[in-house]
């Protein structure tokens, strides 16, 4: 049932230095920030709210106008005013006990979340997964919590090593695999391990610019300084400056957001540079298995024995974000420091979940799911290819559709799509500082054809009806020259 104005209270203060519209606007901002007003929720009409608060309708309208201009509220032609559904990404999660939904709960009226990364949230409805869970839950004796291996269940670490052998042609020792709760947690653990390892001076991490905002934000949360590094059509440009960061984070197989794969020559150049400068390369290998044509390029990890590379992987893309599991593949020198961190902090992935994932891998569930995903991706890719011809400035990068538009057009398209229940990523978020390209990003890695077709129709409609002062024919940023 939709909430009504009775759910929302606002005490106006006659003694306040703020005038009434400003007080109402401040009240809405505060309650949106606190999660009391949730993204996508309908606001009371200006008439109803004016009555409740005992003020004139014009007072409420002035407050609403201000909040629409600030992006807190959206005015929908027939359904009136509502809290902007896109605020979902920026509103802090409500505090525990506040009786609110989690920040990730779909907001009412928002039924298609194609923000890159979120699209992988397809449920794991799969008999193999159910059976893996049953086995883990019913028939296993899981290790005693006191003797549990802090680097992860040995059964899962062996399964991951086998998965890497079959899928990526990598021969790895399970002792170098550390189970994580996904890429972001893996990166945080690695950095803690590097600090414990006594790397000299404060840590600085080179990041692709543009790059995946999720991992850049993880670094910022940890107080780690980032150094934006340029990207071209071959991926990360190998730095030449003497002032090198101690660590670089790179997506060699599928650069985010433009999708390039780093050619062999660039890979060798990067590894040579890393060895010479003593830089640790962290390879974010988030979706290699997901390719629907050909086999993935070799991992940097196995390319040059002895090169300082960490392989950062997640099951979010290939399995589901619901699983919240990933792993790190470490060089021998880092196994000790990372293990000691895990010994003290524990492993955040529940043993039973680790065992279920291990069974799923061992029983071939993941392999079959990947085959299905690849078939689906080939079909959804065709759908995207059709739309591409009609949208100038659009690039299909394999699992994401990038549409470049000037900043104000991009903001209007994001808001217009959100109004129609479609959430998209903001291309500007990929940039560390001032964005060199702006627009919208639609992730379609794990979406079925029907919802994707619906999302693409909404996007096309909104693009067609959003005024764009610059004709977008062939307009592209200067970044992915060779894509
Ligand atoms: C470049 C990149 N790295 C990593 C991830 C996955 O991160 P996590 O496992 O923390 O959800 C994604 C998800 O979309 C991604 O796009």
Automatic annotation (TrEMBL):
Signal peptide: none annotated. It comes from the Bacteria. Residues 90-110 are annotated as: Disordered. Pfam families: Aminotran_1_2 (PF00155), GntR (PF00392). The keyword Transmembrane does not apply. GO terms for molecular function: DNA binding; DNA-binding transcription factor activity; pyridoxal phosphate binding; transaminase activity. Residues 18-86 form the HTH gntR-type domain. Keywords: Aminotransferase, DNA-binding, Pyridoxal phosphate, Transcription, Transcription regulation, Transferase. The keyword Magnesium does not apply. Coiled coil: none annotated. In the C-terminal section; belongs to the class-I pyridoxal-phosphate-dependent aminotransferase family. This is Aminotransferase class I/II-fold pyridoxal phosphate-dependent enzyme. It comes from Raineyella fluvialis.
């Amino acid at each position: 049932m939709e909430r009504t104005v009775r759910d929302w209270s606002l005490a106006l203060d006659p003694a306040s230095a703020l005038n009434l519209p400003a007080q109402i606007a401040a009240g809405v901002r505060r309650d949106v920030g606190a999660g009391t007003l949730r993204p996508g929720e309908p606001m009371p009409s200006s008439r109803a709210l004016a009555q409740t608060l005992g003020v004139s309708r014009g007072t409420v309208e002035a407050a609403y106008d201000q909040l629409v201009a600030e992006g807190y509220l959206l005015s929908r032609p027939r359904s009136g005013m509502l809290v902007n559904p896109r605020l979902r990404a920026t509103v802090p999660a409500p505090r525990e006990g506040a009786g609110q939904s989690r920040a990730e709960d779909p907001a009412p009226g928002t039924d298609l979340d194609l923000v890159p990364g979120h699209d992988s949230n397809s449920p794991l409805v799969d008999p193999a997964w159910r059976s893996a869970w049953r086995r883990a839950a019913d028939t296993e004796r899981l290790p005693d919590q006191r003797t549990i291996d802090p680097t992860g269940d040995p059964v899962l670490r062996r399964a991951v090593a086998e998965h890497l052998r079959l899928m990526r042609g990598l021969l790895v020792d399970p002792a170098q695999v550390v189970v994580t709760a996904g890429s972001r947690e893996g990166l945080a653990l690695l950095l803690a391990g590097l600090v414990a390892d006594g790397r000299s001076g404060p840590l600085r991490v080179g990041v692709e610019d543009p790059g995946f905002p999720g991992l850049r934000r993880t670094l910022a949360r940890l107080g780690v300084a980032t150094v934006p590094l340029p990207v071209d059509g071959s991926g990360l440009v190998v730095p030449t400056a003497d002032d090198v960061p101690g660590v670089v984070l790179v997506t060699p197989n599928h650069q985010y957001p433009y999708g390039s794969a780093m050619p062999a020559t660039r890979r060798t150049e990067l590894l040579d540079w890393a060895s010479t400068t003593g830089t640790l390369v962290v390879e974010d290998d988030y979706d290699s298995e997901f390719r629907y044509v050909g086999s993935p390029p070799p991992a940097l990890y196995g390319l040059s024995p002895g090169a300082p590379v960490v392989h950062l992987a997640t099951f979010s893309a290939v399995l589901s974000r619901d699983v919240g599991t990933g792993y790190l593949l470490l060089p021998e020198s880092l196994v000790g420091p990372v293990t000691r961190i895990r010994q003290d902090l524990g492993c955040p992935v529940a043993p039973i979940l680790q065992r279920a994932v291990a069974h799923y891998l061992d029983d071939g569930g993941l392999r079959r799911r990947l085959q299905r995903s690849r078939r689906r991706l080939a079909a959804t890719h065709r759908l995207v290819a059709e739309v591409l011809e009609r949208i100038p400035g659009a690039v299909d990068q394999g699992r994401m559709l990038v549409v470049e538009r000037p900043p104000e057009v991009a903001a209007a398209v994001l808001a217009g799509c959100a109004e129609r229940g479609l959430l998209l990523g903001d291309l500007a978020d990929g940039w560390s500082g001032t964005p060199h390209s702006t627009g919208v990003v639609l992730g379609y890695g794990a979406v079925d054809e029907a919802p994707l077709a619906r999302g693409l129709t909404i996007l096309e409609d909104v693009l067609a009806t959003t005024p764009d002062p610059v004709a977008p024919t062939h307009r592209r940023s200067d970044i992915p020259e060779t894509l």
